[in-house]
Amino acid sequence: MNQPAPKMTQRQVNDTIMAAMSPPTKEYYAWLALCLCGALIGGGCWAYQIATGLGVAGINHPTMWGTYLINFVFWVGIAHSGTLISAVLYLFGAPWRTPLARSAEAMTVFAVSIAGLFPFIHMGRVWIVYWILPYPNQRNLWPNFQSPLLFDVIAISTYLTVSLLFWYTGMIPDLAIIRDRAKGLRQKLYGFFALGWTGSQNQWRHYSLAYLLFAALATPLVVSVHSVVSWDFALSIAPGWHSTIFAPYFVAGAIHSGLAMVLTLLIPMRRILKLEEVITIPILENVAKTIIFTGLIVAYSYLTEAFIAWYSGNVAERGIFHWRAVGHYAPFFWLMVTCNTIVPLALYFKKVRTSIVPLFIISLLINLGMWYERFVIILSSPAHDQDPYSWGLYFGPTWVEYGILLGSFSLFFFLFLLFARFLPTVSMTELKEELTPRRRAQSQPKSGGQP
Amino acid sequence: MSATRPVLSIFADFDDLLAAITALQAKKIEIADVHAPTFQPELLTALKLKRSPVRFFTLTGGILGILSGFALAIYTASQWHFIVGGKPPVPRVPYVILAFEFCILFSVLCNLGGMLLLARLPKHKLPAHYDARCTEDRFCMLLHCPVAERQEIGQMLRKLGAEEVNDLG
Hints:
The complex is a heterodimer of chains A (451) and B (169). Chain A has 451 residues and is mainly alpha-helical. Chain A contains 15 helices and no strands. With 169 residues, chain B is an alpha+beta fold. Chain B has two domains: 4-37 and 136-167, Alpha-Beta Plaits (2-Layer Sandwich), CATH 3.30.70.120; 54-118, no CATH class. In chain B, 48% of the residues lie in helices and 17% in strands. Chain B has five helices and four strands; from the N terminus they run E-H-E-H-H-H-E-H-E. Chain B has helices at 14-26, 41-46, 54-79, 93-118, 150-159; strands at residues 4-11, 30-35, 139-146, 162-167. In chain B, helix 3 packs antiparallel against helix 4 (93-118). The interface between A and B is large, with 64 and 69 residues.
């Protein structure tokens, strides 16, 4: 899985990455406007829901979580891979990490921010969201720290803070490079965020160790966050949810979807920003190979989950798994199985995983499959709980929920487009670190210098 | 009146810089700072810089986080002795999750805070000797050179491969 460093000089690395930040084309602005429209539609739908009431969403007893929680889990899952790719591959010193890491980290920050919106949207009266925070109050009421929902609040806010700081800290030396090339207001702005970085040895000495520790701390956090999300379900007593496999199953699924989203973002980005020399085909191939691995873990989890239900002898557990495969929402179950476990098998063929178009299509299908995985998990258990009257009563999302879903995707791509325009999408400093520092043998003989 | 003058030398080649550092150390000339575009562990060794103590900040943050997580959960639970789900008012197992998340959060905040403090960041103004080429592809070394030896040191640095030797005095 080794990726040789691109044959560039240090200056060429800066030139190539910063060229992507040059004034964009009309095509860029068209995409930006389209994403902004989508985000505004989502915002409008949310405003309509606030004005009208939660009844405009398709949620109904007993499927009270509906698509808002599906979107929440989906976006937390997408957020997973960014920090994981960056932190784990950094700890292992994988050379193919560098061209991907910055964009993957940005993906994490935007995805977890969007995920954080969905509990607010689902709450209805969003202005009283501060009630869930532990703050001293007159009634001496505090949140219940035994609740998995509170674990979630703490875990997601920790994850957002850590991911944002990890992303920003990694960018400080690059912001200094941009500052040193910029002029006027741009120089002041980038200079402010570069914090006065000069690349002195005192700075590098503390920075390098702090960044290593950041990566070491972010790795267990990544695993814990999606485990905590899974416990929102697993700590309940609903059939299909109350399972010890949920934590590793959710973590594997999150990495699977996150890697697919990395491909979905990077494939167009490398072309639009002309970064083909940096984000090379072998790097995309390495991501594809990792997807095969995560796809197999997900397939194993599906099988194990079904086996546990059968082996437990529990009638309700067996019933829910049978119903998922043949009941009201069976097409979505089979779509999930196909997209997440069968489609990635095509990546076994080198020709598929080294061709851009199939790779992009597979990444889109995995994203679709992973959204439906959350649909199957989150909807099917309450929609088939102990009361047979309610089985199959949930008819799916309403136009308001579809609008908010569209808004979330549009906002995500809107933020990513802004990121690609204003910040370096690939770490220049780390890419330069992979190049051997220039030695005397590589340079021209100097007058008066030693040979 | 100072007996030394600041001198900034710029190197294109890494091994020229290392050779210059060794030569200057042999002459007991004070190297005030070296700026590099990337992290070079060899440079830290050559300058005999110790390992960063930022790890102690991180460890302190982690310990504080664990204590704060447990303290917050136990304090809030003890305000109302409700039995929730048949569990005791102050259960230990669920609070480990809170303590873990707080441990990571506080470690990261202290790690970043420690790094900024030790690296003396943020700086509102760049140092007067700073050369923008240091973030591109050049190595810049600032010396405090004795006035009497300035010429000799300058020649030596040029001979060792410095592209430029600038007297900043």
